[in-house]
Amino acid sequence: MASTTDTAQTQTDQKLKEAYFTASQGQLIWARFKSDRTAMIAGWVLIAMLLMGLFAPFLSPYNPTIAGRDKEYENGAPQIPKFWDENGFSARPFLYTVERERSIKTNFRWVTTVNREKRRYVYFFVQDWKYSFINIDWDLPGEAFDVDIETLTFTTHLFGADTGGVHLFGTDASGKDIYSRTLHAVYTSLAVGTLGVLISFVLALVIGGAAGYFGGWTDSILQMITDAIRTVPAIPLFMALAAFVPDEWSSETRFFFISIILGLIGWPTLARRIRTHLLTERSQEYVLAAELCGATPSHVIRKHLLPSFTSYIIVDLMISFPYAVRSETALSFIGLGLKDPVNSLGALMQNVSKADVLLNYQWYFIPVIFFVALVLAFVFVGDGLRDAADPYSGTKK
Fold it and tell me: Which residues lie closer than 8 Å to 273 by C-beta, 6 or more apart?
């Protein structure tokens, strides 16, 4: 019996060894990444936030713009659905009715009271405001660049109330639902970061790869361009661009413009790292062998040089995402980035610094929590991917 067990264990070990030696690079990276618990948790958080942003219109009970504001619940506190209270149990979640009236005791200011006798029930998959998952309206200079696409239009939302509103994160001063605005803000900030990182990544690969592989006068010219871009201060640049942007530009056009600018000024750091790596690797024997076999420079860079630099490229990309999100947030926070009616994390955080909010409306800080969670998730996932892509990470002490 023991011999049979030992034989089965030996066969299992042999299969694991065969699977290890025949696995692709992607499979090895994924296996090492799964062993990092912190990175896996951060990865699930990041996926959850990506899905929340992608399906924000479906998950949002109300339009995040001024069109969906609740006039009867301005600066309202978060509403938490309940299943039971002193009046009994309910299988369907419910909320209390909020009533407002002007009181002579407060110099005729609005006074809000909660009527616990009147329940408002929450329903799922309700029909409300219309939204489109693909809605592009770019009004760039010149008629040839105007883009207006609207498709995948629906009116179904995850939840809603039979009467009144359901505000899980409360409302702002104009009555707009902060929950709906936060979900749309996550999507907007991620979209800005994705477009900006994509542009900077392509530029870094092309410029850094050409400078490191060819060297000589090509390297000198490209490095002068790189150094010139690095010396451009970001905040004064955006202040100048904010004055340049026409007021008649739509919110989508402004979003596209800011994404491009973030991409155009974000590539020098990765480009210099790629250049440095290629300068040291281009004289290696495997590169010379590929060149003797007739491989083109682009093939050598893509198939031989860049794969040896995968771990550094991965971690730089993952760090670039929160950097781009932070840049958009900071610019919107100081009024140079996206503005209403666009919902971004920076635009939502503009009101946080007000003293009145700090004292009376603490639920305005909920988007800040999402921003911190998003940045930390990117950082931990980047660290996990860096260690997983480095074959020597397990041997380092």
Answer: 208, 309, 312, 316
Regarding whether 147 and 295 lie in a shared domain, the answer is: no
Report if residue 68 sits inside a domain: no
* Cβ atoms of 160 and 126 closer than 8 Å: yes
The whole-angstrom separation of Cα 272 and Cα 302 is: 17
Q: Which residues contact 17 (CB under 8 A, 6 or more apart)?
A: none
- CA 137, CA 140: separation in Å to the nearest integer? 9
Range of the domain at 168: 74-176
pLDDT tens digits, 310-359: 767 777 777 777 777 777 777 776 666 676 667 888 778 877 777 777 77
pTM score, two decimals?
Answer: 0.79
- How much of the chain exceeds pLDDT 70, in percent? 82
pLDDT at 47 over 90: yes
DSSP letter for 283, please.
T
Cis peptide before 81 (omega within 30 of 0): no
CATH number where 295 lies: 1.10.3720.10
* DSSP 8-state class, residue 336: S
Q: Which of 121, 142, 176 is the last residue of a domain?
A: 176
> Is there a contact between 345 and 49 (Cβ–Cβ < 8 Å)?
no
| pLDDT-wise least confident of 18-22, 134-138, 172-176, 369-373 | 18-22
User: Hey, how many other C-beta atoms are within 10 angstroms of the C-beta on 181?
Assistant: 28
Distance in angstroms (rounded) separating the CA atoms of residues 275 and 208? 5
Question: Is residue 245 in some structural domain?
Answer: yes
Give CA–CA dist 63/57, Å, rounded. 8
Q: Count of domains in the chain?
A: 2
Q: Which two tokens stand for residue 155?
A: 């009116």
CA 235 – CA 241 distance, rounded (Å): 10
User: Residue 14: is its pLDDT beyond 70?
Assistant: no
Using only C-alpha atoms, the chain has a radius of gyration, in whole angstroms, of 27
- Point out the domain boundary residue: 142, 176, 210: 176
